[in-house]
Amino acid sequence: MYFSGKMIHSLAILFLLIPFAVLADSKPHIIFILADDLGWNDVGFHGSGQILTPNIDALAYTGLMLHNYYVTPICTPSRSALMTGKYPIHTGMQHSVLKAAEPRGLPLNEKLLPQYLKELGYRTHIVGKWHLGHYKKEYTPLYRGFDSHLGFWTGHHDYFDHTAVEEEQWGFDMRRGLDPAWDLHGKYSTRIFGTEAVKIIKNHTTSQPLFLYIAHAATHSANPYNPLPAPIETLSKNIACDTVSHRCNFAAMAQEMDTTVGQVIKALYDKNMLNNSIIVFSTDNGGPAAGFNLNHASNWPLRGVKNTLFEGGIRGTGILWSPLLTRTGRVTKQLMHISDWLPTLLAAANNTVTNLNIDGINLWNSLKDDRESPRKSILHNIDDIYGNSAITIGNFKLLKGSTYNGTYDGYYGPDGRKIRYNEELIINDMTGNYLKNIGMNLSAKGILSLREKATLKQCPDKNNNLPRCNPIKKPCLVNISEDYCEQNDLSTMYPEVLKELTEELEKYRASALPPGNLPLDKKADPNLWDHTWTNFGDYNRTSNKNTHILTY
């Protein structure tokens, strides 16, 4: 076949343009890293110098620090909101956590984020904690849209022996797909999950987009006999060891998780995937401080802890990082809820589906281009078993009732502000170096400026002309933009605002499903299943404690 000079020139131009056209239309890889029980004050970029998180901080300073980002107060509800894009009251997951022996899970009629992404051509993997049901195999990750899972099904486990103690029952909980991963006994969970995440990235076929959900055990407490386990070598180099021993262990657990973040960034860079990736880092709820849950997180200066509706329980540490963002390296003030990730990430993946019938709102363009958020309000939760609820509309937040009769409604440190922050470590550690290689340079001056903007200052003195916010005694109204410490009750000063928020809260209450919690099932006893927590609802066994788990 003969080609003229003009035809050859035209074909050359066409072939040169093809890679750019493909790149422009290609779907981004999505890496979602979920920390467990990480408090607002447990990362360096929020102002504390106590815990070394150089890899997480480097992502923050070159991405978006989500300053007004909210999660739910405890594990299972947050994970259900993330996966469905719905408030937990609309899936029956609003009360407490899913217990290992409960015969239920996230309802099977709910379509989950990985299922949406598979329809868009993604390979989908989960590493780490599930905690959305294992009663029957249909509730487990491989049946809810994920191609693979290495991790655990319950709410916590020991980081070395991988057993979970619940309601005086003890069983092994580490799975590779549906099979117990006995070979991982003795290996530290956080390192296992980091290694597996890197392996998935290395083996990924880059012509297909990747969704990798890394749900860490860290920094959730483990079993009562060793609640905050960490490798000795990490403990020995920890800054927090100069203060409180429990806090030292917590800090080492956080640092181990931070190291895996660096490993993931390196793997993405080595695979030439980093330039077309979206990385989210989020906590699932506020930190359990001052010994709550045998843990020692810090939400300073915010009020409350995990499983309360004060800011310390629901204002989440969050980062969105991607070269696809129009302008990076900023503190965003857009209002955001964990349920928004589903529609936001689908939009980023060029999804055109509308009318999803969810509570989450697509914030992709708002965050990417720094536009005003379409979200104007957040239902934080309604839990009629605990007798508490909270909602934010605009600058005002309404709180009614509290958990634990107010025992954990105070303020808990440490603040960590007296420990010098090492900005040079951020620049020169693993993530800082790889970001530099793709043109995202960090400077000490820029880091300190952004950190100042992302830091919540010490609570101002309370206004003694106003009553103290005490939602146990009566509904409390606070201006959350001015009083993030939730000290002053404005309900008598702004009765019309109180009425508006109360009416909106009651509208949500009318739409709520009843909590799906069920009595524990004796058939779940790990002693019946070779000392493992398993999908006990798939079998009929009730008594023989010496038999092995059945196969499929």
Question: Can you describe what's shown?
Answer:
The termini are far apart. The protein has 14 helices and 18 strands. Strands 9-8-5-4-10-1-11-12-2-13 form a ten-stranded mixed β-sheet, sandwiched between helices. Strands 15-16-17-18 form a four-stranded antiparallel β-sheet, covered by helices on one side. It has a two-stranded parallel ribbon with strand order 3-14. β15 (377-383) and β16 (388-393) form a beta hairpin. With 552 residues, it is α/β, with parallel strands linked by helices.
Backbone shape? globular
Beta content: 5-15%
| Oligomeric composition of the shown chains | single chain
- Let me know the number of strands: 18
Strand order of the largest sheet: 9-8-5-4-10-1-11-12-2-13
Q: How would you state the average pLDDT, rounded?
A: 93
Radius of gyration: 24 Å
End-to-end separation in angstroms reads 59 Å
Query: Which residue ranges are poorly predicted, with pLDDT under 50 across at least 5 consecutive positions?
Result: 1-24, 543-552
Individual helix count: 14
> What summary fits the major beta sheet?
10 strands, mixed
Q: What structural class is derived from the secondary structure elements?
A: alpha/beta
Give the proportion of residues in helices.
25-40%
Provide a concise account of the structure shown:
This protein is an alpha/beta fold and about 550 residues long. It is built from 14 helices and 18 strands.
Per-chain topology:
Blueprint: H1 5-25, E1 29-35, H2 54-62, E2 64-66, E3 69-70, H3 75-84, H4 113-119, E4 123-129, E5 148-152, E6 163-166, E7 169-172, E8 175-176, E9 179-180, H5 189-203, E10 210-215, H6 232-236, H7 245-270, E11 277-283, H8 311-314, E12 318-321, E13 330-332, E14 336-337, H9 341-348, H10 364-368, E15 377-383, E16 388-393, E17 396-400, H11 423-428, H12 430-437, H13 444-454, E18 476-479, H14 495-511
Parallel strand pairs: 1-10, 1-11, 2-13, 3-14, 4-5, 4-10
Antiparallel strand pairs: 2-12, 5-8, 6-7, 8-9, 11-12, 15-16, 16-17, 17-18
Helix pairs in contact: 2-12, 5-7, 7-12
